[in-house]
Nucleotide sugar dehydrogenase (Streptomyces lienomycini), 438 residues
Amino acid sequence: MSSFAGSDVSALTVAVVGLGYVGLPTALALSDAGATVIGVDSSPARLRAVARGAVDLLPLHHAQLACASAGDRFRLTSDATAVSTADAVVICVPTPVDARREPGLTALSAACASVVEHAVPGQLIVLTSTSYVGTTRDLLLEPLRSRGFTVDEDVYVAFAPERIDPGNEHHTPERTPRLVGGAGPRSSGAAAALLAPTASLVRTVPDPETAEMAKLWENTYRAVNIALANELADACASLGLAPAPVIEAAATKPYGFMPFYPGPGVGGHCIPCDPHYLLWQLGKVRQQAPLVATALAANSGRPARITERALDLLAASAVPARGARVLLIGVAYKEGVADVRESPALEILAGLAAAGADVAYCDPLVPSLRVGTDALRHVPDPHGRPWDLVVLHTVHAVHDLTWLSAVDAPPVLDTRQRGPLPRAASGSGALPPAEVTA
């Protein structure tokens, strides 16, 4: 291992700790830039899935994985000591929240402690996992100093928040700007040099805390605007308006507006979790953020509102909830991915089942699903079945919804209110009168 001092990336060995939705694309981007990559993950099952290519990636990244796996500069291991052989270490482990919406720091703390334990002089350590302001200092800088390292002289540390939009081929990491907040100028320079080939541009900020807060600000901004979009969509419904044309009209303004769209709630790895790290930390210093707290509560309550709306529609059709045949289209938290973490669909399905409905789902990217201890029924081809209600939750590009535009189609609850359903293949299928929005 050679000392890292802004060397050409192709001359480096980089250990990526955590091969999830962030770590694996990061490892592949570094491999594509010519680095020798060591993928470290504590889960043997995940390592086997990566080795087989049985992972949820864009086609571009699947091609990168196949290419990397065919060479001898990309290897996988569960051995945490492997980071000691690397010039640079990138930490990409999950940072969820627990049932009380408080930070779940177990995986992050363990990963950082292991990296610190095996750190060597001249090494660059980059943390990418979203967390509270001060995480890099608490989990990396201070422990490294306790080991006798002089940070920014004989070891380099930076925080560079991940910016990965799973399933979106237009926002791949390589096309997205990256932030770097180093523990000092050398750390910032080293981290920027490492990440430059993996991003459209790299912007350095004064310190890790600035980068940490920037990440929390980004996703808190999104959470608040999603809550606002849902509230204004409900206002549109009360006024007899469809939200989508209103949003599109407002979006013609070239300044001061960014379109956000209504939906069944928030899901995935960022929006339902990251803002709670900020609220948790502010609570410790007795600082209130009432707007943020209200928005998060509204987002959390959205799936229950969708469930209530579905039950109201069944009642309006004189269909008892108990035994009602309800199909949910799409259970992933967003289009184009197989990820169901924090998906509003889980709560909606559980709520409908609790009311006695006979629930099933159709999602070609998620062939099996459990809610609690119960396995849900997956219906790959729902066309022609006697559904009492169809709930549009997540519509993937591979979904064929033309059957819902037939004259005899079941009622549809569109949770995302994106406009008319596709016309039937014959071109004669008008929207069914029973189609409604959330």
Q: What stands out?
A: The longest helix spans residues 208-238. Residues 216-296 form a domain with the N-(1-d-carboxylethyl)-l-norvaline Dehydrogenase; domain 2 fold (CATH 1.10.1040.10). Confidence is low (pLDDT under 50) at residues 423-438. DSSP finds eleven helices and 16 strands in the chain.
